[in-house]
Amino acid sequence: MEAPNIVIKVENLTKKFGNFIAVNNISFEVYKGEIFGFLGANGAGKSTAMKMLCGLWLPTSGNAKIAGYDIYKETELIKKKIGYMSQKFSLYEDLTVAENIRFYAGIYGLSNQQIEAKTNELLSKLGIEELRNSLIKSLPLGWKQKLAFSVAIIHDPEIVFLDEPTGGVDPITRRQFWDLIYDASNRGVTVFVTTHYMDEAEYCDRISMMVAGKIEALDKPSILKQNYGVSTMDEVFLKLARG
Amino acid sequence: MKRFWGFVHKEFLHIFRDKRTLIILFGMPIIQILLFGYAITNEVRNANIAILDLSKDAVTNSIINKISSSGYFMIYDNLDNLDEIETVFKTGKVKEVIVFESGFAQKLKSNKKAEIQIITDATDPNTGTTLYFYTSNIIKNYQMEINLVQQPFLNIIPEIQARYNPLLKGVYLFVPGLITIILMLVCAMMTSISLTKEKELGSMEVLLASPMKPFLVIISKVIPYLILSLIISTVILLIGHYNFGVPIRGNLILLYLEITLFIITALSLGILISTKAQTQQVALMVSLAGLMLPTILLSGFIFPIENMPLPLQIIAHINPSTYFMIIVRDIMIKGSGLEFLWQETAILIGITLVLIIASIKNFRIRLQ
Amino acid sequence: MKTIIETNNINKSYGAVTALHDINITVNDGEIFGLIGPDGAGKTSLIRILTTLILPDNGSANVLGLDIINDFKSIRNEIGYMPGRFSLYQDLTVEENLKLFATIFGTTIEENYDLVKPIYSQIESFKNRKAGQLSGGMKQKLALSCALIHKPKLLILDEPTTGVDPVSRKEFWDMLKDLKKAGITILVSTPYMDEASLCDRVALIQGGKILSVSTPQSIIDAFPKKLYSISADNMHKLIIALRNFEFSNTVFTFGETVHYTDRRNSVIQTGEIMKYLQNNDLKEIKINEINAGIEDCFMEMM
Questions:
Q1: Which CATH architecture has domain C3-221?
Q2: According to a count of CB atoms within 10 Å of the terminal CB, is the N or C end of chain B lower?
Q3: Could you read off the pLDDT of C240-263 as tens digits, one per residue?
Q4: What residue spans of C223-289 are helical by DSSP H?
């Protein structure tokens, strides 16, 4: 691999809640354009770590730089450089597709002209021009998720954080969703994703596995499988998470 | 039965675990009663008044001086004739007009008595009463002062006239009113919220899919609030009685029976709301707009019903709070018994029955 | 074989949206029956009809020999139900939750302890902790204990494993297997296709319609086409290349490989595909014919 461009650099990051150490001294790097899978059991500390990287929570100790900005002092700058999408909340159900796009684009300070251009581009890319003025709640879940992802990267962020983006989505839409992820990654957007689908873990360039607040493994899926002498990521997960 | 009490126990656990709500439930009535008791009824400062001095002599002058230097009043206007009284009230700038009869000092000297008329704007009965009370106190003090040196006693007779609300309803109305508001709030709002909470959480689904009879679920949710409401009513009565001297002249058992009746009214309202609302937010909004506002504004608590436009009067007359407020006030202040209150009580029972039937009709044994 | 659940042409619409369309399934005594489909497929609507929580627009169904409309009270006594949304009281402790459910069903924890013991004993040491403070896996165990406390003959679970990590999911399925051994019939819904193989029989459901009801094996055996697993050094390029191949029928990513079917029904030459991919600058190409999985079948039927 050619000298990679580091977009996320995490050093000894720790977050404590009282006596409970949610994230315990984790360090890793994520490269530009990479699809980075962030895996772990429920309660292993994934969400906490992700919230710190997005500038939503301050760490207890340790350092991290996101897109070159410090997570203590430059959270406002970080927020301009990242996109975020979660399964739980993505788009406003009672607004139309175009209104949602306008709203999110507006948050990131895009001009009216840019918004108009972006909206057209996005709708034609997803092939849903005719749904422009439909309410989000009238769309099937799969469409919502694809749209939510496109909206999350509407301001051309350097990094997009995806928190279980494909939960409950049908298998075909799930794969279409990953096409969008590949596409973004090819354009140089770094994708940081959590998932409970182990086949999706295989789609990532590298994955990290969190167990009880620590990163227990971090490598390419193929190498992890080799190291643990198993044939699927599911087995890697089971071996690691069960200790 | 065991199911039922197990469920009641659970409701109590919910209530006691939620410390914040508990503090609000008990703290609010206490704060409100103190607010009403001290701030609203007593605290009149620099109220604008007008003087109509038909005598303009030394005695009236010194009384006016006493009044203006008391700190409670500002003399806004001096009137020249009786016709101006109505005009000056209509402007709304003046809360009270004091009228000295002509030849005041003369009459005081020759007849040993003279009359002062105190006219208050009693659209706000609490302020009106307070102003009158202050004015007559100042006059009494003046009378005592001159009587120290003067024999035989001179008598200044203040005559009051409360315009727009001649009976001065609302003198002690704040305690009955407060009980009504709090019971509405605790019973109707809290029940509807706690029932819709089960829907939102998804636990209603499990309860419905269990052998627990749906109506028992509701009754057992309601019981803790009934008990809580009785305790809160007692707290308000105690503070009102011992702190502000609001009398409780009537039968205490009758009072508590009527309170329980009204609690059931409010609880069935809460249940009715919860059968329609799917989320806690909707339940809250409906309870606030649909129940709290009428209870406060359209029950005769703040604005006299007689002065309302007809549509609002109609609403006030189907509002159970209106009747309950009359019942509580009459029991407490007039010492009335059921022989005088059976009509209001009967109406309240009627409204309650309608509400209970409506909520049973609307209650779903399924999710939709 | 005794029938535990039987539905006849169940339909359900919400306004203009058809949630269920002519649903016919039977669940047999003692089996684990999986209802498999993505969100919005109609799983929850069907389960709520069977648990007597909503009424079908038309059609009929029997649960444990009882009619879902007329005998709903008896059904509610007999079944254990765990809805999709987490349904425990967060402000009550573990023990208080379990006790409450025991009381609701007119029983006690002690009376039916043997059935819930294997599950409840795992969380019993936290019995004074509030349910809201438990980890996801522990909440699930408590919810399952609560659904089992009255020894139901039939356990109905709506998406118990959604959003749960693979380890907890595996543990959960192990618990279901033990319950099956104890003679309980289980109807479970899930959006995870890989969980199909853990069921005795499954119904694949999509858009309110049942695509297929059978054992997982016979669904797999019925896959109509030859399926190839293809891998190469660059996944994204591989997908694009295969999609542009003139004979390609379906191209779906599966982990680190791509599952490919051809439009031609005759036996195809893997060499031809290999050559095509090589011409597209792909390296380390591997092509193997493989057996389909449930997910392949599901996508084929969609």
A1: 3-Layer(aba) Sandwich (3.40)
A2: N
A3: 899 999 889 999 988 888 999 988
A4: 235-244, 270-279
